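ARCHIVE CARD
Drawer: 12
Card no.: 0347
Subject: one protein chain, sequence and derived structure
Cross-reference: see card 0346
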Amino acid sequence: MTGINPLLTRRAAMAGLAAMPLASCAGAAGGVRAPAPAAGAASLDAIAGRKGRRFGSAIAAGNPAGPTVQNAAYAALVKSECGLVVAENEMKWQALRPGPEAFDFARADAIVAWARHEGLEVRGHTLLWHRPQWFPAWLNSYDFGASPAREAERLLTTHIRTVAGRYRDTIASWDVVNEAIDHDARGLMKTSLSRALGSAEDTIDLAFRTARDVLPGAQLVYNDYMSWEPQHRDHCTDVLRLLEALKKRGTPVDALGIQSHIEIMAIDPATGVGPYAEREWRAFLDEVTGMGLRLLVTEFDVKDRALPSDIAVRDAKVADYARRYMDVMLDYGAHLDDIVAWGMVDRFNWLQYFGPAKRADGLPVRGTPYDDDYRAKPLREAIAGALAAV
């Protein structure tokens, strides 16, 4: 969109979603009905568990009408389908760190307490979102003093030790660094922390090494938003360059988190969906796994703006496109761990508020496994089918 930073818009929508006043969910008032795809059907997590992996979802805290632990209908759906949850925003610096010497864990603790009570596991997201627009305002303008490297090291290591240490008995997989690539410069993003420390490389290395020191047995993940569409080629190249450099320096990174906000940008006559670059995507995954890194699908959903308005047609094509993508990812099953949706119900998915994902016809994006009324969609069955086929 002209004049708008797509990443900023995308993340602004996501960051504001939990606090946005949403209408009450159909079926939520007057009692919670148990959402289920079909009588006796196995949950997505149970199907995933047959091969030793977990299926999960992002969830929030606070707004009882949103995708939160306080929304009884949404919580029931998550419990019925998932074995794993991740805080959508509540464990990011903006939420946890209101000031240089202050932490606020109320919302993050609420998610963790709910998950533990319900027997669900928790992923950590994220110890360092390496982009200035997602730093707290105080950090972007912080005076690092006469010894900037020492002060930057103190701020970063204190954050990671405090946050990771608080949840060390609950969270075994962390997105340590999130989205570190500057796409315009085709290199690493520069931030107030990286300038004070000396370089982005030093900052990222320090984040991973500190996380390893606090969490010697945890899975440490670099997380980013590439997927298999042709427009992500350069991004994939840049991510490979970053991962290769981390491995060369001995930085303790264990896995790549592939966000997988997959997108149907146009109708490809050859496939009826797409377009997608499967050969190049497999080559990328081969490079990543060839470094000895694990894979995770960390933020899955589908952008459907190029599809017709007819819901039946649209849902069928979304399911088809997602099944093709999941089949490829699950071909790497020996390297693939968790699969996490970025929300389970359409009305709560951040794509509804992300400008570049909005549909020209004004209709809601239908990119999650369940519709606004908590009914399973063909996308849910496509995910289940892919998981069951491996």
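Annotation on reverse: The chain has a mean pLDDT of 90. The first strand starts at residue 55 and ends at 59.
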